[in-house]
Structure formats: C-alpha cells, structure tokens
UniProtKB/TrEMBL annotation:
Listed name of the protein: Short chain amide porin
Source organism of this protein record: Flavobacterium sinopsychrotolerans
Keywords carried by this UniProt record: Signal
Residues annotated as signal peptide: 1-19
Length: 459
C-alpha cells in the first residue's frame, strides 16, 4: 500500500492542472475553432479510485463466504465530458462514463460468474448527460438578466445545490446520496429527460425544468391496515415532473455555463449563497391496502446555505468551506430506500442472528418520506509555499435522518482530510464514515464504520 501511494504521489505532482487551488492548468483541454476563442470544444476527463476497508452489516457474505469485514479497490467514477459552442448562443453537452466497478459487481449487463465476462468485468459505458442549449438572452448584453433554454438528458434537477453537485470538487469524499433522491429509479444516474431554463437576474440564479421521469413498476406489498401501507416506485403511465432551484449569491457570482455546483473553491472565490428548491411528480408511487391500490405524488423540498471564504492573512492562503441543507421528503406512506455504494456484500442464507433491515454489506436507510438535515464543514490549512507543497483540508460532516418508516431517528458522521497535490485536479482523500444499523424499525443495534482512501485525477 505504501508503494502504491508513493508512486501515485510522484505521478500526480508532475501534472500541470488548474481550477480550485491550481494556477497552471489554464483553459485545460480546450480547442479553439476561431482566432478569438468564441468557438471552441472542451474536454474534461476524471478518474476516482477507491481503496476501502469496511465493516459489513450482520448477515453478510462476500464470495459465498460469511464476512464481517471486507477490503477492496474499485472504480467509483471514470468519466469523460465534452461540450462545444460554435456560437455564443448554441451549446451541446455530452457526458459519459462508468461508475461503481468492484471485484464482485459493476460489470456489464448480464455478466456473472468468472471468466472473460465474469461479474464485475467490462462495465458498459452510458451517457450521463446529453443535451442541446440555446441562449435567448446573453449575459454580456444585459448584465442583470440572462436566459438559456435547453432539452435532452440533463442535470438541472432542482431541489438543492447538492442535487446538482459537481463530482470533481466535493468537500467530503463523495455526496451523501440522499441529495439525489430519485437515484436510479425514476432518473438515469440523477438525470431525467426534459426541458430546462436557466439564468440569472442580478444576484439571483434560477433553474427550472419540466421532465418525463423514467417509468417505474415496483409492486406494492398489500397491507391490511392503512397505517402499515408502504409506497413503492410505480408510476404507471408516467406523468411529467417539475423541478426548480433558486439561489441568491450575496458575494462573488458563480459561473452557470454548466449545471455542476462546486463543493469547495479552496479560497479562490468569496461565496455566500442561500438557496431553496423543489421536485414534484404526480402519481409517482403506489401503495396497496386490502388489494386497493392508491397513487401518491412525490413532493420534495429543500433549503440550503453555502459558504466558501478565504480567511486569515492573505499569505497563509487559508479558507473555510461550509454547506448545510434541510430536506423535506414525501414519497407516500412509509416509503424507504436502502442504498449501498459499491456494495460487495450479499445475503448470507446461513446467518442466524439479527439481520440488518437495510440488507447486507454497507447498505443503510438512505432515502425516504421524512426529514434529513446534512451539514459539512472544512478548513484549508495555511501554506506560505507554492507547489510542490501539499495543501491539507480537514473536514467533517453530520447527518440527521428521521424517516416515517422507522420509529427512531438516527445520526451519523464523516471525518476526513483532503491532500491537494495540485488543487482539485490531483488529490488524495481519506475519510472515515459511520452508519446506523437498524435490526427492527424501533431498534438501532449500533453503528458500522467504513474507511476510504480516494485517488482522484481530473484534467
């Protein structure tokens, strides 16, 4: 392991990159198509590799062997994004890649067992984003108001800043996942097909979209008492959804050419924003009581605040980053989703103890009808020397969840440090996270931990 990190550090320190915390990258992989650069194509590529040591939920096996812990290395994200403007009004965006490939799963559809097409091998590329955009009102012609319209598979999903987060510059090692409440059910990896409008009015940034959610068809379990009904994703003849996010930017104005919200600017901007958003979808879930089917709307609301400021003496190059968001989720009665990132565990049929309600591996209650409060904060430590000195940013996050389907609320935390070798373009992140383990809706038997080291390169 020490050899791996040494080699990685040497390679990363040799990179020439840019953006939050780095000055050498310039415009990156940008190819001008005319002399003044108003017509161009730009390419962005990034890899996020995870080394993990995880405590497994009770009732887990790995590779048909009972397991209480597991270690692995996996491809969290391998992505490629390209966008082009042939005029200031027209833009096309494409974004594709793979996610969540481990030694046991994440391979192409239909792969199983061992051999050339064994489980976890040869994952299939797919599009994350693919949209066209037209600027009706250009920002440089009217400094107070701008408006662009677009359509396709897009990321303008409203709700919160974190719902449209960039995966290139998280403060923590990753998103908490509940910021993408529809993930891989009625969306395609946090995206839907539809139309969107974006722009600014003074210091107010707005994003609105009208989308056709992907169809869902989970069959609800029939309950004999209405209080025990459980809503599941079943949209039938899917109706159009609406989403929006409004953010007032008190200090420096953030770019909105692309939808991806920055997680940490590392003191390169002075940002203080307050935002609020929503997502609604009619008749998007169903429940059953005594064989009578009821339809339920999805109504999601959020409010958040984001702060990123340089602090202290200028020569120390310190900065503080903070983000807090409150989610009010209504998917229908007792709706609950258990989610696990890159889960290498499966159900142990021979386990005789109290199993985790969430399931095997690192699964946990993640999304549901109820409330979630999430807060993260980090500080970029002082450095009076430019590269190759590593910049260090310790951080922490706290999550409170109160779901209707569970009798007890829960809390959990994340603690870690970013080691910036060249800003966000070359960094190593180490994080320890906890998660509660429910064995019944009214009993939390304790918590499990997961330690992750991520190696990220972004060009």
């Amino acid at each position: 392991m020490k050899k791996i990190f040494f080699i990685a550090a040497v390679l990363l320190l040799s990179l020439k990159s840019f953006s939050q915390g780095s000055t050498d990258y310039g415009s990156g992989m940008k190819f001008n198509l005319n002399e003044d650069g108003s017509k161009y194509m730009r390419f962005i590529a990034w890899n996020q590799i995870w080394f993990r040591s995880s405590q497994m939920n009770p009732g887990t096996m790995i590779g048909n062997e009972a397991a209480t812990t597991g270690t692995d290395i996996g491809n969290r994200r391998l992505r490629f994004l390209a966008y082009s403007q042939l005029s200031k009004r027209y833009m096309i965006v494409t974004h594709f890649g793979i996610n969540n490939q481990t030694f046991t799963n994440g391979g192409a559809a239909g792969t199983s067992g061992t051999g050339g097409y064994g489980a976890g091998k040869k994952p299939g590329l797919f599009f994350h984003d693919a949209w066209n955009e037209y600027a009706l009102v250009l920002p440089e012609k009217d400094k107070k108001f701008s408006l662009s319209l677009g359509g396709g598979l897009h990321y303008y999903m409203g709700l919160s800043r974190a719902t449209m987060a960039s995966t290139l510059n998280f403060l923590t090692i990753d998103a908490p996942i509940f910021n993408w409440p529809l993930i891989e059910n009625s969306d395609q990896f946090a995206r839907q097909m539809g139309l969107f409008a974006k722009g600014k009015y003074g210091k107010l940034e707005y994003r609105l979209s009208y989308n056709k959610p992907y169809a869902t068809n989970l069959v609800p379990t029939d309950a004999t008492v209405a209080d025990n009904a459980v809503a599941v994703d079943n949209s039938g003849n899917t109706k159009w959804s609406k989403a929006g996010y409004f953010e007032y930017q008190f200090l420096d104005q953030e770019a909105n050419l692309l939808p991806y919200k920055v997680g940490s600017y590392l003191g390169t901007k002075k940002v203080f924003n307050i935002g609020a958003g929503f997502y609604t979808a009619p008749d998007a879930t169903k429940s059953s009581v005594n064989s009578t089917i009821s339809k339920h709307n999805i109504n999601l609301f959020a409010a958040d605040v984001f702060l990123d400021l340089p602090i202290g003496k200028k020569e120390n190059k310190m900065a503080v980053t903070g983000y807090s968001v409150f989610y009010d989720y209504d998917f229908g009665p007792n709706y609950l989703r258990n989610v696990a990132i890159m889960n290498i565990g499966s159900v142990d049929p021979n386990f005789t103890g109290s199993r985790a309600l969430a399931g095997p591996g690192n699964a946990q209650a993640t999304i549901g009808s109820g409330n979630i409060w999430y807060t993260q904060a980090g500080i970029l430590l002082p450095s009076k020397v430019d590269k190759p000195k590593v910049r260090v940013q310790p951080f922490g996050a706290f999550t409170y969840k109160s779901f209707d389907a569970l009798d007890k609320s829960s809390t959990q935390f994340d603690l870690g440090t970013n080691f910036f070798l060249d800003g966000q373009h070359a960094k190593i992140t180490a994080q320890y996270s906890t998660r509660p383990v429910y064995t019944t809706p009214s009993n939390i038997s304790g918590s499990k931990g997961e330690f992750i080291v991520q190696l990220q390169i972004y060009l």
